[in-house]
Design goal:
This is LysR family transcriptional regulator. By secondary structure, this protein is α/β, with parallel strands linked by helices. The chain contains eleven helices and twelve strands.
Length: about 290
């Protein structure tokens, strides 16, 4: 038994004709017929009923064998594709868009992936969640990495979100701040602080709800410039709000503290893709690496 014989019986079953199968395989009719006869002899069963003018019809037992043969061929094809990606000959383009906070989580993964697959050209950009979703739907990026709350996750349509990390909102304070010694910050301790905030839908929603319940807050500025926010907190000008894993890069200048607020939502960092779009093999390989290293 060999792969060619399996391909032949699958093609004959599909076309219903030895002649058409021979044409498709670019071989002679006698070669197809002999191939099938040898396989039937090896298996000890008849795979097709052959009748002049009626083509080739699978026998009941032949239908079972042909179905298994088709599954085996699909697995062999999958094996070949998988093996190809373990070779340094893999090439192509990988376009990634991510929200700014967790960029540091990607650096080591991108570095090792690029080292193993130097033929892959990687383009990575920082965007807001809405921009990333738009780029995914427009097929302008291969992978979108965003954070979604439980409520926003339920609102998404025509996209699939795969979770990588679970996080929660925390307060980022300066290392010299007296707040840093608190186990958790209550609204009463937080309301008198000056805020420097990242321009993000999750944070805006949180602050809107916070103000509605606890009163006006002193917001110095809202920006999508993460370095400006980092510097403002580092210099003690204000505190910031963010998802806990966004602060793992900086354990010295900015200290993340838990929020002691009832019913605070959980957040999930993960990758998103359009439900009706094919995920490239290069993107799949990168995502497998990302999941294994986070």
């Amino acid at each position: 038994m060999n792969i060619e014989q399996l391909e032949n019986i699958v093609e004959v079953a599909k076309s219903g004709s030895l002649t058409k199968a021979a044409e498709q395989a670019h071989v002679t009719l006698s070669a197809i017929s002999q191939s099938i006869s040898l396989l039937e002899s090896e298996l000890g069963i008849r795979l097709f009923q052959r009748a002049r003018g009626q083509g080739a019809v699978p026998t009941p037992e032949g239908q079972v064998i042909i179905r298994i043969a088709n599954e085996a061929l699909m697995k062999i094809n999958e094996l070949k594709k998988e093996a190809q990606f373990y070779s340094n000959t893999i090439s192509g383009q990988l376009r990634i868009a991510t929200i700014p906070g967790p960029m540091h989580l990607l650096i080591d993964v991108i570095s090792s992936f690029k080292r193993d697959f130097p033929g892959v050209k990687i383009e990575i950009m920082e965007k807001g969640p809405k921009e990333i979703l738009d780029l995914i739907k427009q097929d302008k990026i291969d992978i979108g990495l965003i954070a979604l709350s439980e409520s926003l996750l339920q609102q998404q349509r025509n996209v699939t979100f795969q979770k990588l990390l679970e996080g929660k909102l925390v307060v980022g304070v300066n290392q010299q701040s007296p707040l840093r010694w608190e186990q958790a910050l209550t609204p009463e301790k937080l309301i008198n602080q000056t805020f420097v905030l990242y321009d993000d839908e999750h944070i805006r929603n949180f602050m809107t709800q916070f103000i509605e319940v606890y009163g006006e807050a002193d917001i110095l500025f809202i920006s999508n410039n993460t370095q400006a926010i980092h510097n403002a907190v580092k210099e003690g000008i204000g505190v910031t709000i963010g998802i806990d894993y966004s602060f793992k890069e900086d354990g010295l200048h900015i200290i993340p503290l838990a929020l002691e607020i009832p019913s605070i939502e959980r957040f999930y960092y993960g990758w998103v893709h359009a439900s009706d779009k094919h995920i490239s093999q290069v993107a799949k390989r990168f995502l497998n690496r990302l999941k294994s290293e986070l």
